[in-house]
Amino acid sequence: MKANNRNAPKSVVRRLPIYLHILDNLIENEVEIISSRELSDESGFTAEQIRKDLAFFGAFGTRGTGYNTVFLREKILKIIGLDKQTNIIVVGAGHLGIALINYNVTKNPYVNVVAAFDIDSDIIGKKILDVEVLPMSKMNEIVNTYNAKVAVLTVPSGQAQIAVEKIIESGISAVFNFAPAKLRVPEGICVENANLSVELQSLIYYTKA
Q1: pLDDT tens for each residue of 74-109
Q2: How far apart are CA 60 and CA 168, in angstroms?
Q3: Do 100 and 163 belong together in one domain?
Q4: Quick one: 191 and 111 in the same domain?
Q5: Between 20 and 30 A from 204 (CA), which of 77, 144, 153, 167?
């Protein structure tokens, strides 16, 4: 029986985009079939883990043959919710916000950046590619108009809590937080933290002689 993807373990959900990225590359190179062992070689996860992850959502492969890359990609897109473009907003139009807008507009076909928001009057009104930077007061209107589902938060740490409260007020319940701050949010709000400084500092550990 197919499991409800809303009940999937977070660890499984985090691996699905990795499989999707591999499948995108395979399809681009006209590879039609891939086994779980070959997926293991590409992803670094064990073949058993991959089979368990996919089996959580249904039966997508053929024993002794493997997975059809196009079919599996379509299924993973639907499981994640990427079968249709997801509208997102970026809150904070500084250097990091601009970089993320540029990447997602030009390189990420699964999302559509509908607007950016900032409090700096020198930035408001400008466009990053085709994405306009708007005042925070416009957030509710834009989120409702475009049914935006995710906010990418790139403001300084001192502004992060106020910004996330505004995001939640607008109706968004999923936040990708790049601000180096621990956010206090109500139950039911999903916050994924990406602390670049911590990740870089942790990496330096492995450079020690």
Answers
A1: 999 999 999 999 999 999 999 999 999 999 999 999
A2: 37
A3: yes
A4: yes
A5: 153
Cα–Cα distance between 70 and 67 in angstroms, integer? 9
pTM: 0.81
Q: Count structural domains, the chain.
A: 2
Could you report the per-residue pLDDT of 148-179, keeping only the tens digit for each?
999 999 999 999 999 999 999 999 999 999 99
Residue 209 lies in a domain: no
Cβ count near 36 (within 10 Å): 20
Question: Beta strand pairing status for 131-135 and 33-34?
Answer: unpaired
Are residues 96 and 178 part of one domain? yes
97 and 194 inside one domain:
yes
CA angle 193, 194, 198 (to 5 degrees): 115
To the nearest 10°, the Cα dihedral for 151, 171, 85, 93?
-30
CA-based nearest residue to 97, from 178, 166, 30: 178
Phi, psi for 67 (deg, rounded to 5): -115, 135
**Residue 101 lies in domain:** 86-199
Q: Are residues 34 and 105 in the same domain?
A: no
Question: Measured between alpha carbons, how far is 31 from 14 in angstroms, rounded to an integer?
Answer: 24
